[in-house]
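User: Watch each token:
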Amino acid sequence: MTKIHPMALFRLTVLGPLASRDRLERGELKQILQTLAEKTYEIPGSKRCTLSEKTLEKWYYTWKYGGIEALETNPRRDKGQSKLPVEVQDAVLAAKRDNPSRSLNTLMALLEQKGLIAQGTISRSSVHRFLKQQGLSTRSIASSESVERRRFVAAYAGDIWYGDVMHGPKVVINGRLHKSYLVSLMDDASRLIAHSAFCAGETALDIEAVLKQAVLKRGLPIKLVVDNGAAYRSKTLQAICARLEIRLIYCKPYTPQGKGKLERWHATVRSQFLSELDACAIRDIHDLNARWWIWIEQAYHLRPHQGLEGQSPLQRWQQDLVRMRPLGQFATQLEAIFYHRHRRKVRQDGTVTFQSTVFEVPYELSGQSVILVVDPHSHQAIAVEDEDGKCLGAVTVLDANANVHRKRCQPQPTLSAKPPTTSTVEDLYQAYQASLTHTEKEDN
């Protein structure tokens, strides 16, 4: 029995209304082709779902005069052959084997620098096809040894949050046009966005501000998974998570697959929010965030999600509300938890310095090492603590002029100490005269 090619069988199935007719009336072929072109199909090996009348007509006459075998896909005559010059092929192979992580753009730039090709004369697809024929099209960053990866999802909402930063559009920030950065925290089980905001940077302070709003709105996660960027490695973020009893977990370098759900979320942001954004209507970053938060709450959170079996992120989140970690005892301490802490040594005049500002602390702490508690947003020192977090007193900005009239604390004398004696010139003279008189009386 002759084996039928899958593509030939598909094409014949599409041509069914035509292939089943022995005779067609005048104009009937065109009418049937138009009807077939209006339908959608699952085309093997293609992402397209429609076929043109011209393609269908070509298939029809091919089948009519050649049968089903003629409907098979004809391979390219130049398949397996590259049109690149031999010297270019050799240079591409040498450059790729020397460093397998080189991209197509890098390879083409190297060829242009060596004078082997002129700019724009060779397409990226030609180089890609050639590398694919040689089995070198995959860009290898680490070792070629495959790593086992499996899809997973947290059992309950609130178990795992992911944090990451995406580059955003340019907007007005503090009166000037600057690039913005989208900082987001996503729940793994529900795909709900705990909080997200466009920020002026991607610093630790920006990430901490988003985390603070997230825990205020959604409670505390058990784990927070982030990448290895310097902002996420900051001591302040680590201290905040430790105080909130959140396990801070870092992904392995160069493995974005560890946060695949958040990467997919970024693609959704670009295609559904940023692509529809009227940049001319955005006044500043505050206006951008206002539109952003409305879209999250009224569009993204309410839309059924394919990965949640038709549930929306908000519905899936609400399903586990009884299992959430509330702020509890941290609610009244949250402001202090997000303060920054810096070690300082108190000078002999009872002052410390933070970012070029001099602050006064309790004078009795002079010469000691203390922890200076600072509001990172206002850069204002709040208090001083010891190593165990016990408050040692308040902090005020130094007012040197006011200290001119300030009464100093003097040490009190002890009861056992004798008062100091002072002698004037007159006292010494009277004592001398008395001694002379006493001598004269002895002589008489």
User: Anything to note?
Assistant: The chain has 14 helices and twelve strands. Residues 425-443 form the longest helix (19 residues). Residues 141-148 have pLDDT under 50 and may be disordered.
